[in-house]
Design goal:
27% helix; globular; 7-stranded antiparallel β-sheet; 4 helices; 7 strands; alpha+beta; 108 residues
């Protein structure tokens, strides 16, 4: 993953989507001048948003607290955690308002 893969969307967009979907619990999320519906997954009823920014498609997915990851542990403890994917690959996560990019070594 190159730096352009994650910088095509400003960090504040990920945090804004997280805030609107999980903190404010909105059913419609606004990104720039566009709006996107917040859906719920069928099995676990987790928030899911497919959105586009600068021509790049992303998915925000609320962390499933029933998995074994450290992010799931945080969700079980009450943190609001959302993973972000691009083309099926995880590119970042927002946990309680703090964004962490995956493959940060590739970003440098």
């Amino acid at each position: 993953m190159s730096a352009a893969d994650t910088t095509s969307v400003p960090d504040d967009v990920f945090i804004s989507v997280w805030r609107q979907a999980l903190v404010e619990q909105k059913k419609i999320v606004t990104v720039g001048n566009s709006t996107f519906s917040v859906r719920r997954t069928a099995k676990h009823r987790l928030a899911q948003i497919d959105f586009e920014m600068n021509g790049v498609e992303f998915r925000g997915l609320e962390q499933n607290p029933q998995t074994k990851s450290r992010w799931a542990k945080m969700a079980r403890e009450g943190a609001k955690v959302m993973q972000f994917l691009r083309a099926g690959r995880y590119v970042g996560v927002v946990a309680d308002g703090v964004l962490k990019h995956y493959n940060s070594a590739a970003k440098a």
